Automatic annotation (TrEMBL):
Localization in the cell: Cytoplasm
Domain Ribosomal RNA small subunit methyltransferase E PUA-like: 18-61
Gene3D superfamilies the record matches: 3.40.1280.10, Hypothetical PUA domain-like, domain 1
Enzyme Commission identifier(s): 2.1.1.193
Functional description taken from the UniProt entry: Specifically methylates the N3 position of the uracil ring of uridine 1498 (m3U1498) in 16S rRNA. Acts on the fully assembled 30S ribosomal subunit.
Protein name in the entry: Ribosomal RNA small subunit methyltransferase E
Species this protein is from: Halobacillus alkaliphilus
Class of the enzyme per the UniProt entry, highest EC level: transferase
Residue ranges occupied by any Ribosomal RNA small subunit methyltransferase E methyltransferase domain in the UniProt entry: 73-242
The family this protein is said to belong to: Belongs to the RNA methyltransferase RsmE family.
A Gene Ontology biological process term: rRNA base methylation
Gene Ontology CC annotations of this record: cytoplasm
Length: 251
């Protein structure tokens, strides 16, 4: 059944009104009409099976038939801090990372970032990433959309450490060392409901200065396996491992 996130202000007395681009998707793409059913997702109450009462050019009115008890969210809140990359790499991270359960995404400008965003480009990029996160959340049947933060400088993200239980630095150099902290040992310390901030570098990796500042700020370095991963692969490795550890091994 097709799913749509509907903001809280559009719900009233077991009725909801879907507006915006989703109207076109419901009426033109899915060819749904009065009497058809869909799943509407309330930002606080979660998903509900809803029957369509009316379809117009600017809204779809529905009524709730049944509230669903389901939760496909990771038991750990993981914020992915990802440097800017070439092409659509950041879009790939947001799309696939959303499917894998990321709680939020924080783009930042690293010292070796090839891509550069000006103010005008930043607004458009964030809007685009928000749309990707919404569509990926609907596709993967999540009950919340990951937040896409505004672009941060490296120094700004350093100040986020106090908001999290764990701050992790996914450093490629850990794969080359004989002595390292494996991700498995890190996962044993993380508990359900913990907030985790994990930072990934650009194509050229972190500079020595950035690594030093992150470690001094309290970030713990971890190894993501013995191989060197691409910028867009590393966050997905981390999230997949986390999902397996908390959602499959512990069942």
């Amino acid at each position: 059944m097709q799913r749509y996130f509907v903001e809280g202000s559009s719900w009233e007395n077991e009725h909801l009104w879907i507006t915006g681009e989703d109207v076109h998707h419901i009426s033109r793409v899915m060819r749904m009409d009065k009497g058809d059913k869909l799943i509407g997702i309330h930002p606080e109450l979660g998903p509900a099976i809803c029957k369509i009462l009316e379809v117009t050019s600017n809204h779809v009115e529905c009524c709730v038939e049944e509230w669903l008890e389901e939760n496909r969210e990771l038991p750990v809140q993981v914020s992915i801090v990802q440097s800017l990359g070439k092409g659509d790499k950041l879009e790939q991270v947001v799309q696939k990372g959303t499917e894998l359960g990321a709680y939020s995404f924080i783009p930042y400008q690293a010292e070796r970032s090839v891509a550069k965003w000006d103010d005008k480009k930043t607004a458009k990029k964030i809007q685009r990433l928000q749309k990707i996160a919404k569509e990926a959340s609907e596709q993967s049947e999540r009950i919340r959309i990951p937040e896409i933060h505004s672009l941060l400088s490296f120094q700004e993200l350093i100040h986020l450490t106090n908001e999290y239980d764990w701050c992790i630095l996914a450093h490629a150099e850990e794969a080359r060392r004989k002595s390292f902290r494996p991700l498995a040992s890190m996962l044993e310390m993380i508990k359900p409901h913990h907030r985790v901030l994990v930072i990934f570098g650009p194509e050229g990796g972190f500079s020595e200065k950035e690594v030093s500042e992150l470690v001094n700020a309290g970030f713990l370095t971890v190894r993501l396996g013995p191989r060197i991963l691409r910028m867009e692969t590393a966050p997905l490795y981390f999230l997949s491992t986390l999902s397996y550890h908390f959602e499959e091994l512990r069942k």
